[in-house]
UniProtKB/TrEMBL annotation:
Enzyme class per UniProt: hydrolase
Domain (Alpha-L-arabinofuranosidase C-terminal) ranges: 289-483
Oligomer status and interactors: Homohexamer; trimer of dimers.
Catalytically driven reaction(s): Hydrolysis of terminal non-reducing alpha-L-arabinofuranoside residues in alpha-L-arabinosides
Keyword match Hydrolase: yes
Name under which the protein is recorded: non-reducing end alpha-L-arabinofuranosidase
Length: 490
């Protein structure tokens, strides 16, 4: 056991958390939509084919925003295929899949309302452009009286969908993308699309594509060039990042939260550099609209070879260590909540997801469900700056932590111990909080770091009540090796 410490003081405020930090992502990919959120004929499906058991879990997860319909999928997507009575069957080159288009915008909006989430729509700037983005916006948001808006009414949606958040394409720096572009080409297209969309609906929030991840060779220059072209037209630049134990390096994997923080800080620096160069007062904020643990190398070693509808793709089965890393990624996002205003865990169901749904069978929570749901529930309010002091775990401190003060005055400490060998004996100075006590305390860990949940043992891994004490203003807790802890004070 080694010592660790930090101070919780409401005077050190980072900023207020935007609830949209707890977003998720539904892509037409594998079984996320088909046999995920949508499965007509399933015993739990409603009259629209939406799985009620999955909806219950989505609500429990605490998701606020859901990005749709991709992802790589959107860069070859024709939105018109997914509305009205005639649904063409198409090839989806992004995932070598057959898209029936049975599920489209209207179905998604029905699902989003049932789930209680706000939609974040992505437009295709890969194989399509300004006109198609404007057509989709007019169809979705214009009340009525034009051909496109009346078409939506005819399709059964009398009221406009009123979609506020829009992504201007997806990962346009990625050569794997249909319609991949240079930064200059994309920046101009994003600016033109944004300008045209705002002429139709001025109240939109628009996200420009940043780099596909921090390892892209153009990371930094891509953001700078895109923002030189589109700074005045956009509100956010996107970040995407997935983490896995590369070459079996588990210590580096456990440090993923630190890598995410460095990526965020570098992106903020680029945004603010362009702001200074252009002499603008407006700040461009960050939308971390794809993040998660993803065993990407498994997919790369075994890509799909046959065209199929709703194939089993990217169905990662998460263990305890993955959940702890997800907890650390959530801490990283919260620690930068002043600039990261929106974030989407990718994805929601079946595909690298916190929720698993079997075709015709049950749905359950993966290990990574738990840190997300706890952060989404208790990570609301004002983030307090905490600077943990602890021994190292590889290249980073073992302790990764943040604290959030809710509107009701309660304070929640989120803490991850990244050490694989040592428990941390945490002493947190909470004197500045006044007369508070420990309300609740949980830990997610296991002697078997490879333990997972399954259909037969769906609650094998979950947060369990832990012992924490608060005496003379000092909170004490033992954080086991590779663990995620949540301690509420009030
Ligand atoms: O979430 C899986 C894929 O990862 C998305 O389609 C793409 O945007 C990213 O590369």
């Amino acid at each position: 056991m080694t010592d660790a410490s930090l101070t919780i003081d409401p005077a050190f405020s980072i900023g207020t958390v935007d609830p949209r930090l707890f977003g998720s992502f539904v892509e037409h990919l594998g079984r996320c939509v088909y046999t995920g959120i949508y499965e007509p004929g399933h015993p739990a499906a409603d009259e629209s084919g939406l799985r009620r058991d999955v909806l219950d879990l989505v609500r429990e997860l605490g998701v606020t925003v859901v990005r749709y319909p991709g992802g790589n999928f959107v860069s070859g997507y024709r939105w018109e295929d997914g509305v009205g009575p005639d649904r063409p069957v198409r090839l989806d080159p992004a995932w070598k899949s057959i898209e029936t288009n049975e599920f489209g915008l209207g179905e998604f909006m029905t699902w989003a309302r049932a789930a209680g989430v706000a939609p974040m729509m992505a437009v295709n700037l890969g194989t399509r452009g300004v006109q198609e983005a404007c057509d989709l916006l007019e169809y979705a948001n214009h009340p009525s009286g034009t051909t496109l808006s009346d078409l939506r009414v005819k399709h059964g949606a009398a009221e406009p969908y009123d979609i506020r958040m829009w992504c201007l394409g997806n990962e346009m720096d990625g050569p794997w993308q249909t319609g991949h572009k240079t930064a200059r080409e994309y920046g101009r297209l994003a600016a033109e699309t944004a300008r045209a969309m705002r002429m139709i609906d001025p109240g939109l929030e628009l996200v420009a594509c940043g780099s596909s991840n921090a390892e892209m060779p153009t990371f930094g220059t891509w953001e700078a060039t895109v923002l030189e072209e589109a700074y005045d037209q956009v509100d956010y630049v996107s970040l995407h990042s997935y983490y896995e134990p590369k070459d079996g390096d588990v210590t580096a994997f456990l440090a993923s939260g630190a890598a995410m923080e460095a990526y965020i800080e570098d992106t903020i620096a680029t945004c603010d550099h362009v702001r200074a160069k252009l002499r603008r007062s407006k700040r461009v904020n960050l939308s971390f609209d794809e993040w998660n643990v993803w065993y990407l190398s498994r997919f790369q070693n075994d890509p799909p070879t046959e065209w199929a509808h709703a194939p089993r793709l990217l169905e990662d089965h998460y263990n305890v260590m993955d959940a702890v890393v997800v907890g650390s990624l959530l801490i990283a996002l919260l620690r930068h909540a002043d600039r990261v205003r929106m974030a989407c865990q990718a994805q929601l169901v079946n595909v690298i997801a916190p929720i698993v749904a079997q075709p015709g069978g049950p749905a359950w929570r993966q290990t990574i469900f738990h840190p997300f749901s706890q952060a989404a529930r208790y990570g609301r309010g004002e983030v307090l700056r905490v600077e943990p002091v602890s021994p190292a775990a590889g290249e980073v401190p073992a302790l990764h932590a943040t604290a959030v003060r809710g509107e009701d005055g309660t304070v929640t400490l989120f803490a991850v111990n990244r050490s694989r060998s040592d428990a941390l004996d945490l002493a947190a100075d909470a004197r500045a909080l006044g007369d508070v006590r420990v309300l609740e305390s949980w830990v997610l860990t296991d002697s078997d770091l490879d333990a997972r949940n399954s259909a037969t043992d769906p609650d094998r891994v979950r947060p369990r009540t832990a012992a924490s004490t608060l005496e003379d203003g000092v909170l004490r807790a033992v954080l086991p090796p590779v663990s995620w802890s949540v301690i509420r004070l009030g």
